[in-house]
Automatic annotation (TrEMBL):
One matching Pfam family: Methyltransf_23
Protein name (database record): tRNA N(3)-methylcytidine methyltransferase
Keyword Coiled coil among record annotations: no
An MF annotation (GO) of this entry: S-adenosylmethionine-dependent methyltransferase activity
Biological source species: Morus notabilis
Length: 336
């Protein structure tokens, strides 16, 4: 649902630039900041007043899951996103975790571009993957089933969830497992039954593992997802992620950074909030600075382990243009 569009240039970023260089410092972010903030063409990005129409602002205040559903239907072929092969280099914990049935929650899975590298890299991992689009989940399952991943049918468990709005289902982590981090009272699956969502199959396999829930997850992967939901919903969304993590579990974060080149493709009327923009199709994009990310995650109870800008010069070999890409890389832990 919320999966962002970094995939359109991912070939040059991953394959042509090389996996080993992916998380590097091709340029200094402070130098980029100075260039951008002194450029007269970009002044509207830094004005306090939001120069958007009332209709755009009104739309931005509503959940945009329908816009992402339409987006994924348009790109149902799966060619829009590339498999994120860099993922295991950036987050080696996904490979080193050798616990039996190591549980990973992929939030906003799209067509499975994050799921596949995890399943390939760790043969003991079970990946629970959610999205707000049933069509997207069906496509992701087709792609994973067609791969050469070992035991993919048992280890890939997609389920429907619009998590910024409804929160995660109780079969993922019940009240007792969530403990004091629980924000909303959930009903235990063993009392509620197994047919209360659109994915249909996930509750049945979760109940095989436990009479109430699966006991939370070891990792939450939040990869180019948070920036695609309304900014006002981000604190609640992150607290939901915190609540389903086991004590000591890790949240792995990567998303658009402030002054990424795609930020400057937006026109003034597309700006619906500070660093927040709406495309013509209704999907949102937010660009993070390190302080914002830190405040969001630490405010939700996480311990910061890693947080930095990833600054990459990506060359488009078709036109020879160099693009300065900026992502935020973060790793956060739930206290033990």
């Amino acid at each position: 649902m919320w999966k962002m569009r970094e995939g359109k240039v991912s070939k040059s970023e991953e394959e042509e630039k090389g996996e080993a260089e992916y998380h590097s410092k091709d340029f200094d972010w402070e130098d980029l900041r100075a260039d951008v903030e002194n450029h007269p063409s970009f002044v509207h990005h830094f004005q306090f007043h939001i120069q958007s129409s009332s209709s755009s602002c009104s739309s931005s205040s509503q959940p945009d899951s329908d816009a992402w559903k339409r987006f994924h239907i348009r790109h149902s072929s799966g060619k829009f996103f590339k498999e994120r092969r860099y993922l295991l280099k950036e987050f080696p914990e996904l490979v080193s975790c050798k616990e039996e049935n190591c549980k990973v929650l992929e939030v906003g899975c799209g067509n499975g571009s994050t799921v596949l590298p995890i399943l390939r890299g760790n043969e003991t991992a079970v990946v629970y993957a959610c999205d707000c689009s049933s069509e997207t989940l069906a496509r992701a399952k087709e792609i994973v089933d067609a791969s050469n991943v070992i035991a993919s049918e048992q280890r890939f468990r997609p389920f429907y969830c619009d998590f910024p709005v409804t929160g995660f289902p109780s079969w993922l982590a019940c009240n007792r497992c969530r403990g004091p981090s629980l924000r909303v009272q959930h009903t235990c699956v063993s009392d509620a039954g197994v047919n209360d969502n659109k994915a249909g199959s996930e509750d049945s396999y979760s109940l095989k593992e436990s009479g109430c829930c699966i006991g939370g997850v070891d990792f939450v992967a939040l990869i180019f997802t948070l920036s695609a939901i309304p900014h006002r919903q981000m604190p609640v969304a992150i607290k939901e992620c915190f609540s389903v993590l086991k004590p000591g579990g890790l949240l792995l974060f990567r998303d658009y950074g402030l002054y990424d080149m795609t930020m400057f493709r937006f026109d003034p009327e597309q700006r619906v909030g500070p660093r927040e923009y709406m495309r013509s199709d209704g999907t949102l994009s937010y660009f993070f600075c390190l302080d914002t990310v830190r405040d969001l995650f630490v405010g939700a109870g996480f311990i910061e382990l890693e947080l930095d800008y990833c600054c990459i010069n990506s060359v488009n070999h078709r036109n020879g243009k160099s693009m300065r890409r900026v992502w935020v890389h973060g790793k956060f832990q739930k206290h033990v």
